[in-house]
Amino acid sequence: MDKIRDYQQIVNELFNLQTPFKKEVIGYVNYWKRTYPILKLSLSSSHRKKTILITSGHHGDEPFAVHTLIAWIKQFKSKDFKNLEFYIFPICNPWGFETGSRENGYKQDTNNDQALVKNSKVAELAILFEHFPLLTDLFIDLHGETYQTHAYCYEKKLDLLPSLATIALQEVDSIIPYSRQKTILKNPIEKGVMCPRLWEIGLEGLMEKRGIKYSITVELPGRFDGQKRIEGGIAILNSILHHYSEIK
């Protein structure tokens, strides 16, 4: 497939950013004589007590999710989240991002692999697995819904904890409205939030097996003003993180 975006340009942009995050290449994938580095950004110190994992860039037809995450990284200030430790993987499927494909170069899905385990047959996931924190408190997976005009979230959380997704969507509704639909993809949804009973596959499935407190997938609308979408996406991320940091 032909390139429609320059992945290396994104890599260079991230490495040249003045940001508190440590930036590193954690591995490479190769497709059709092209080599792609997988990036990790992290921020940790001895007084940070809660671990946050953020991923994006699984589907190449959702580039605005990646651009939103990069915009969030640019505005990030560590003083705002002193008790949080971050692990960020901004583009999990670089070949897909570069070519606009929802799959990697071998037509594998990096988002919904049935067996996300060590030595996964999906090269990207094998690399990610080795570099994910063993214990994660909050997992945020940033996506885009190409045909939607409103934002919505999937959220799986431990009982008795507040719905961070609901709070965030309501707080940001004036910037990027959340979906008032009753169902999306035949799944019931309330106040813009879907609550699946069980994640069985993919990154969410792995997090559930590890007993994570929160797993939130943010779906940004494809049919929406680009700048407002980025502004709203940043606000949703900051709202989730601020409210989570305040939970005792």
Give an overview in words.
The chain is of the alpha/beta class and 248 residues long. The protein has one domain (7-245): 3-Layer(aba) Sandwich (Aminopeptidase), CATH 3.40.630. The chain is built from seven helices and ten strands. The strands form two sheets. Strands 1-2-4-3-5-10-6-9 form an eight-stranded mixed β-sheet, with helices on both faces. Helix 2 (63-75) crosses helix 7 (226-245).
Short description, anyone?
The chain is α/β, with parallel strands linked by helices.
CATH class: Alpha Beta
How many whole angstroms does the radius of gyration measure? 17 Å
Total helical elements: 7
Q: What characterizes the major β-sheet?
A: 8 strands, mixed
User: Under CATH, the topology is which?
Assistant: Aminopeptidase
H and E string: HEEEHEHHEEHEEEHEH
Q: Mean pLDDT, as a whole number?
A: 92
Strand content: 15-25%
Low-confidence stretches: none
Portion of residues within helices: 25-40%
Number of strands: 10
Number of domains: 1
CATH superfamily: Zn peptidases
Distance between the termini: 49 Å
What oligomeric assembly is this protein in? single chain
